[in-house]
Structures are given as C-alpha cells and as structure tokens.
# Entry
Amino acid sequence: MESLDVSICIGEELLTLNGKPKCRASIPLDALRRHLCILGTTGSGKSTCAAIICNELATLRIPTLILDRTGEYATSLGKQPGAMVLRPGEN
# Structure
C-alpha cells in the first residue's frame, strides 16, 4: 500500500526560540496508522488535543476508535458523523 503524504493540523506554534518563522503543528497520517496515546499532566491540554485529532480525522472520514473509561469524550466526540458511543454493560 502506498504511503499517503497527508497530515492533520493540530495547531500552530505560539512562539519560536530558534528565530525561525512560526509553523503549523501537524501529524502525518502515516504516524496514526496504529495506536496513539496522549500523556501529560493535569491541565496540559490532553483532552483538547484528542478532540482536535478526532475532529480532523472525522473531517477526512477516517474511522477512529476512542477508548474512554471516564466518559469524558462521549458527549463531545459522540456527535461526530459516523460516531457510535458504546457503554460497557449496556451495549
């Protein structure tokens, strides 16, 4: 299978320390072919980053599985086209 030279935008730099122009922060789709784990401290933007990634993938109609133990994403991301929210013990 051919490699896609496509990426999703997750934001842009707020400032640079090396004097180069600010640039867009993106993730190549090839990097998302397997698994993704977002780690960080409380308040560091994990939920926002996850929502942006999921929204970008939904825009491209790329199937995404979100394992959400706390239910934090079910309300916001469950409204995406093609999204299905499953609850353990219910369905």
